[in-house]
Amino acid sequence: MDGWETRRKRIPGHDWCIIKLAVACVIKGLLLDTAHFTGNNVLKFSIQATILSSEEELQIPPRNTTVGSGASAEDLDRVEEIFSEKWKEIVPVTSLRPGLEVTRYNYVKVFSNKPWTHIRLNIYPDGGIARLRVYGEASPEKPPANELTDLVSMLNGGVNQGYSNAHYSHPRNILKPFKGVSMSDGWETARNQNRPAIIELNEDGTLNVNVSEWAIFKLGFPGSLRRICVDTSHFKGNYPGDVKIEGAYLEKENWFPGDKVGWTSVLKQNPLEGDKEHWFDCESDVITHIKVTISPDGGISRLRTFGYISPF
């Protein structure tokens, strides 16, 4: 069983575990996947959450991953010091379905606007869960104003808020913090149905196609961009011909379709190559959102936008 399975409960109580999130996060939803646990799945679960300081986190004892191990009395005594059983309940006791293909996926919405750093997964009374997915928006602490920061990274609160086409894979993927592992781990559009029958070049080496696809991203913090990376790794025969990036400062937090935005150039149209990191210098005003336009279509693996947050 490629998941977490506890021994059959023969003492009072129920099983639980504490999980640290990758970054402080406003949780929007959860997926509990009980795949393969068809006769030994968890019957019910609940989720609690809290914000722990680095000092409080030290109270959580390190654990080994040996099969058949359990928390010692000393471990439990140390964990009691962070009062995890009293953390905020964000998902009440909820039934789980067994891990058959038609019932394995258990989705739950979370109605909370607070950021959390740790969650406690309670299972009643015992059993197995294959995977836990926690969906939300990162809400990290503000970095120093003099520190070069990837402002669009999802770990810094970057979010995709709109796109023209996501036929093969979603543009939110390009905000992930690690290197892409495949084409499906990036953003790939369908072939633009309005692309010309014969492709011609402009004098600057960009494609003269007059069709494009786009995606709009909210930065984690308002800031000014200084260096951009457009990574086409894995896209060898389906990378975009070129890319341009524009920025805007929106007074409201979110962009919506139909909004009239005064986009200004951050990165002029530049030709791209396949399976390669492209680095560009730039100098933008303070902006909150960027619009990435690729011509005529294709795929991007990752986007990095390094800059300095606005001190105001």
Q: What does the secondary structure layout of this molecule look like, with pairings?
A:
Blueprint: E1 4-5, E2 15-33, E3 44-50, H1 54-57, H2 73-79, E4 88-95, E5 105-109, E6 115-124, E7 128-129, E8 131-138, E9 149-150, E10 159-163, E11 187-188, E12 200-201, E13 207-208, E14 213-231, E15 242-248, E16 264-271, E17 277-281, E18 287-295, E19 299-300, E20 302-309
Antiparallel strand pairs: 1-7, 2-5, 2-6, 2-8, 3-4, 3-6, 9-20, 10-14, 11-19, 12-13, 14-17, 14-18, 14-20, 15-16, 15-18
Short overview:
InterPro entries: Allantoicase, Allantoicase_dom, Galactose-bd-like_sf. The chain is mainly beta. The chain contains 2 helices and 20 strands.
Report the span from N to C terminus.
51 Å
Instruction: Catalogue the unreliable spans.
Output: none
What helical percentage do the residues reach? Answer: under 10%
Strand content: 35-45%
The class by helix and strand makeup works out as mainly beta
How many individual β-strands?
Answer: 20
Order of helices and strands: EEEHHEEEEEEEEEEEEEEEEE
Shape: elongated
Quickly count the helices.
Answer: 2
Estimated radius of gyration: 23 Å
GO molecular function, one term: allantoicase activity
Family: Belongs to the allantoicase family.
Organism: Bombyx mori
Domain Allantoicase: 1-138, 157-308
